Amino acid sequence: MLEGKAVIGETDMLQTMQRDAFRLAGKGLDAFDVTDSTEIARFIKKEFDELHGPGWQCIVETDFGSFVTHRCGCFIYFCIGSLTILLFKSSTTPDVTM
Q1: Which Pfam families match (predicted)?
Q2: Range of the domain at 41
Q3: How far, in Å, CA of 43 to CA of 58, rounded?
Q4: What is the pLDDT along the chain (98 residues), one digit of tens a residue?
């Protein structure tokens, strides 16, 4: 598992949710080829929806920019190896923007 190799760029998640994100990213990377970023993102999003309620969005890629509005306490941006993962719960009101 790659959990120990995760490097956080930004987050406002509780430690327990961060550990879930790292664990699920590791499982996604174990289950899918590293080049299949869409399937990795789908897997992480689906699992986070089940664990922490619906509305999660996940982007997995090697190079991307973003500007999102998210619920407070529901944002993490981290890297594992060459992949960058952005996971956040969407919000209709701009609590925090990144």
Answers
A1: Dynein_light
A2: 3-93
A3: 9
A4: 454 589 999 999 999 999 999 999 999 999 999 889 999 999 999 999 999 999 999 999 998 888 888 889 999 999 998 899 999 998 765 555 55
